[in-house]
Amino acid sequence: MCGIAGFVGLGTVVDLRRMTTQLFHRGPDAEGLWYDANSAVYLGHRRLSILDLASGSQPMWTSDGTLGIVFNGEIYNHLELRHTLESQGYRFVTDHSDTEVLLHGYRAWGSDLPNKLNGMWAFVLYDRENNWLFGSRDRFGKKPFFYTHQQNTLVFASELTAVTCHPSVNSSLSSLALKKYFGYGYIPAPHSIYQNIYKLPGGHSLIYKINTGELKIDKYWDFVLEPYDHLPKPPEEEWSEQLRELLDRAVQRRLRSDVPLGIFLSGGVDSSAVAAFASQHVEAKHLNTFSIGFTEPDFDESRYAAQVAEFLGTQHHLETLSLETSRELLPAILAKLDEPLGDSSLLPTYLLCRFARQTVTVALGGDGGDELFAGYDPFRALQWAKWYSKVIPKPIHQGIQMLLARLPVSHRNMSLDFKIKRTLRGLNYPAPFWCPVWMATLSPMELAELFAEPVNLEELYSEAITQWEACRQDNLIDKTLQFYTKLYLQDDILVKLDRASMMVSLEARSPFLDIELVNLVRQIPSDYKFRHGQTKYILKKALETVLPKEIIYRSKKGFGVPIGKWFSQRQLTLEDASSLPLKQQVIQTKIDEHLQQRVDQRAFLWNVWVLKAWHKQL
Fold it and tell me: Does the annotation count 435 as an active-site position?
């Protein structure tokens, strides 16, 4: 796991070193710089040593010096690819570096290389024969890749802070990105918080022709739901067996490491499954599992993790913290964010990563399971929402909303009144807008007031509309799966995990995003993912031979923090947000509503608070 940075065009090696210094936390073990002032190509790398500690340094070059690469990530099928390439006559210098596999793989397969890979990556390869850069980002965007083309200079890096410190880069805030931040709670690719600086979307590659300055972005892969036309018999048994086999293989691949490794264990079904399969390949008493608990009962899941660890017999590590005292870490954490992220579970994710890093350098987790298998609460609301939107006239709907607004405000983790009010808010709009409006901090009408200008709904939620329309299946479950997998997973969940883990120089791996497993899951019909009100139905059936049923079928809790309580008790405050390009009266009104417990504004106030803390660092 590493950080990459570089540019082609204006600049010096001093600028390159300044960029890599910004990425020190991503790779504290070593720095690598290469540049050719004549060709104006500069490549930088920060290394967190995981594989081939002795000979995996970067930038790495082929023996003839025509191909060079900077690479962030892990290629889990690198040994298999290495054997294939060796059989074709390629000769390797390193012992078992996955970076060298990319170099020879590019020579063998060219721009088709990403389709051969199973892993997570962001890399830039300098092809001196063709005089271009070839860059790529993994299918789900697990590893970050920012770029900009300004003043005839291409600049790229693993984080925005590295891009913006290059002298050729203008980093003015994007008004559209700010709207999307409040509209989604995160900023979806290809946008970034800055104008003219972009994220390379997951599943995309780029080619930059140095002679002409032409920049081309290509999609090499997309998440497409293609359910089987003819079901196997019996389908539950067949798919359960395949899911167990593929998840076991995915976990086994991600246990390859030359440094200490462990498992994030929340006690939920996804992380418990990862731990269970890992225990089949590592003697359980030598398998480290990690969880954090909180002194506040409503936000504590540690007893479930302990139950799983005891069942599996792992070497379990638990750190119990007070959320009230952990809150004091927020300014330091947010100061390290390269762009604002409205997911408050960043705090417990960071605490878990920090705790695990005391013992290991690599950790496996269950991220991706909820998105692939329909594990979120909104899936339960879809059929009811469909009926409600057809049957209830708008005037009556508005009256019901007004009545429900009188419900007492609760600051419990995912409280019932919070869910009901959010669901009804989304039903003011057509179905393609349900998911983003349900998850938004404000309604579109309130967003228009916040920015003191009209909000174009189609522009604001263009990414959600694109995914809704791109889904080939004409049912609400699949279209919602498309939203969660293509947007929420890439631009919220994986960003949160990457930043939280990299802040403490920990590599996080996600077996559920293994491409072989994903290719099976996307062919399983949606009514086997959400079935008879049961979320993740087929996954849970598959795990019945692996884990106790009380673990598999317990209620989902979530990784939350009491931000509503913190604001209502003035432990977090927003007295002065005048530095932000937002209408201050709207913010003050929301503060008053929350303090008086008339409206639960926790999500909006948190997003403003995060934005203010981030903006303060500029």
Answer: no
